[in-house]
Specification:
Strand content: 5-15%
Number of strands: 6
Shape: elongated
Helix content: 40-55%
Low-confidence stretches: 2-10, 149-157
Oligomer: single chain
Length: 215
């Protein structure tokens, strides 16, 4: 699904019935919509602008397809426009395939490090529909316990943040955990000095991290 530049920014909160998803009209009849049938109740509406799906009054989903990634930078402008216009909690679902994999690291950096949103990769639209249904079920139980959404108490529970830190050159699972334990958030990690990073991961990796985050 490509997004044209003239799509309205509209990214405010809307009332979402319990256990429902409100989808952008452009998704009607799509593979995702068909896959969601029988799993959750999906309502389509016009006028959602940049948002693809609302899963609650305060949380929405922006979907980036393989085609969006390959087509160029329009999806990046869309994400930036959304972040500048909205205070909603946003989950960015991205199709990570053999074709789009080469673009994925840059997308992670933009979404998580620069825009401060949650990123969740999927292999295809069928997997995306399963993820959306899971998000809605978790949201319906207790939003504060949703493992996919940002929590004030800790970001270690966020799979997308942990995976993103792992993708920084020279950082694996162990160092990613140490970094998040030490700095507590992506924001603090981005603002850490080389000396502060050295105390956690050593000089070589610290320089790699600093170069990556400041590039």
């Amino acid at each position: 699904m490509t997004t044209k530049a003239n799509v309205p920014v509209t990214a405010g909160s809307i009332a979402v019935p319990y256990g429902h998803v409100i989808g952008n009209e452009k998704w009607r009849g799509s593979e995702i919509a068909q896959s969601l049938q029988g799993k959750i109740k999906l309502i389509f509406e016009d006028g959602l602008g940049l948002v693809d799906f609302h899963i609650s009054s305060r949380t929405c989903i922006l979907y980036i397809s393989e085609a969006d990634l390959v087509a160029g930078d329009e999806f990046k402008r869309r994400l930036v426009r959304f972040r500048n216009a909205s205070s909603l909690g946003a989950i960015v679902i991205v199709e990570k395939t053999q074709i789009s994999d080469q673009y994925f690291l840059a997308v992670q950096k933009l979404v998580v490090l620069e825009l401060g949103m949650v990123l969740l990769p999927v292999a295809n639209k069928g997997e995306a529909s399963q993820l959306i249904a899971q998000l809605v079920r978790e949201q319906s139980k207790d939003p504060s316990r949703n493992p996919f959404l940002r929590q004030k108490c800790s970001q270690l529970a966020e799979p997308a943040v942990f995976r993103t830190v792992q993708q920084i050159p020279g950082v694996g699972k162990t160092k990613a955990l140490l970094l998040l334990q030490q700095f507590g958030s992506i924001h603090r990690l981005c603002n850490a000095s080389v000396n502060e990073l050295e105390q956690v991961v050593g000089q070589t990796v610290a320089q790699q991290i600093h170069t990556f985050l400041c590039s």
